[in-house]
Amino acid sequence: MSKQFDVLVIGGGPGGYIAAIRAAQLGFNTACIDEWKTAAGGPAPGGTCTNVGCIPSKALLQSSEHFEHAGHHFADHGINLSNLSIDVAKMLARKDQVVKQNNDGILYLFKKNKVSFFHGRGSFAAAKDGLYEVKVGEESLLAKHVIVATGSNARALPGAAFDEENILSNDGALRIGGVPKKLGVIGSGVIGLEMGSVWRRLGAEVTVLEAMPAFLSAVDEGVAKEAAKLFKKQGLKIELGVKISEVKSDKGGVTVSYADAKGAAQTLAVDKLIVSIGRVANTIGLNGEAVGLKLDERGAIVVDDECKTNLPNVWAVGDVVRGPMLAHKAEEEGVAVAERIAGQHGHVNFNTIPWVIYTSPEIAWVGKTEQQLKAEGVAYKAGQFPFMANGRARALGDTNGFVKMLADAKTDEILGVHIIGPFASELIAEAVVAMEFKASAEDIARICHAHPSLSESTKEAALAVDKRTLNF
């Protein structure tokens, strides 16, 4: 006999497991299906983010940053080291332990919130009598509401399939067993820059090949320009406007043939190649055709503004639908859908979703960029404050970058905040709160910020909007 649930979530990544927990909190009999597994074959909920994305990459970024500080910055503090070395195997083991802690944490949260968990791949079987039948292995589950949260997969470069030995997706990039002498990265997006930064810090010679003519084109132009300058200074080689013609892989490594921005033929020989050219919605094995689930031309599930699909009581959230492929966006959609099922008014504001690149310096932003405001013909004021004038940044020994605030020229409402510098990922939260509550630059300028703190730079940027900074 099939087990029946009020809400069944397919996928246990950030969107899925959060949706399941919120649905259970709202009183629904809830189940979650997830197929990620550990090396031993056990369940590993958390999706790409926890297993081969956000969490492990941050663990490696932290390890590599410690190594770089020990080798290049500790002496400034009077700390002298000799014979510095990196144990890559131990670094990877720590990363795996961090991942496992998150996997186990999700399983604990399911138990705590009475969410039934099924380990395996979920696929639609049929729709009948107002219920959906979903198969997990040999088991058949029935549910009134289904939330699809199956995430995304790395997009492969045509003619260069991932082998996760030489040609690597984000998965393989997190499992490189030793520091490569030469590392190639195709794509200068978040994943490419973060993984390139990890191995560059550990000693690899890293070259990034980007097809776009502009670096970080989605980022505010001022921030992108500053980032390019600092990354170049660090030793990260970035080539823009390239057109790749061929990728060859053998036991000796990988050779990339391409035309540079001027059209001249070039060759790049590397030990490992990370391909990070975007991600595609994952509907493999979902068997949506069994119930008539509609996909768009990109293979993503079609949803409306409330994450409803074309089928009654079937919802979809996260990377498998439109919008930015960000874990926190998926979480917000998951919560909103659970609340909508309960008759509440779930809320997701796409205009206040923060973006972060965890390089060094970190890059974070929310809202409109200067180039977007110019293109839209919006009259605005800009205020900027450098970290080199911030006391806490000086004490940290990390004074690169700045905070930029953009506000409406007439109303002073904050339209965008862009940060490049230390702990930008944490500082951006204040800007998100401010924009969510329609704050003005003057509001931030009038709020007392602790001294000394990096957040004072946000206040100073707000003051700069009115051309009245106090410390620069």
Mean pLDDT, to the nearest integer, reads: 97
- What is the molecular shape? globular
Structural class: alpha/beta
Q: What are the segments in which pLDDT stays under 50 over at least 5 consecutive residues?
A: none
| Number of separate helices | 13
Largest sheet geometry: 7 strands, mixed
| Straight-line distance between termini | 71 Å
CATH class of the largest domain: Alpha Beta
Number of strands: 22
Portion in strands: 25-35%
Helix content: 25-40%
CATH superfamily of the largest domain: FAD/NAD(P)-binding domain
The CATH architecture of the largest domain is 3-Layer(bba) Sandwich
Family: Belongs to the class-I pyridine nucleotide-disulfide oxidoreductase family.
Disulfide bonds: 49-54
Pfam family, one: Pyr_redox_dim
Protein name: Dihydrolipoyl dehydrogenase
Keyword list:
alpha/beta, globular, FAD/NAD(P)-binding domain, Enolase-like, domain 1, 472 residues, oxidoreductase, five-stranded parallel beta sheet, flavin adenine dinucleotide binding, FAD
Q: Could you explain the architecture of this structure?
A:
- This protein is an alpha/beta fold and 472 residues long.
- 31% of the residues lie in helices and 25% in strands.
- The chain folds into 3 domains: 3-154 and 280-348, FAD/NAD(P)-binding domain (3-Layer(bba) Sandwich), CATH 3.50.50.60; 167-277, FAD/NAD(P)-binding domain, CATH 3.50.50.60; 352-465, Enolase-like, domain 1.
- The chain has helices at 14-25, 47-52, 54-72, 88-112, 170-173, 190-201, 221-234, 327-341, 370-375, 391-396, 424-436, 441-446, 456-465; strands at 3-10, 30-34, 116-119, 122-128, 131-136, 139-148, 152-154, 167-168, 182-186, 205-209, 237-239, 243-250, 253-259, 265-270, 272-275, 279-281, 314-316, 355-357, 362-367, 380-386, 402-408, 414-421.
- The longest helix is centred in the first third of the chain and has 25 residues, at 88-112.
- It is globular, with a radius of gyration of 24 Å.
- The model has no long low-confidence stretch (mean pLDDT 97).
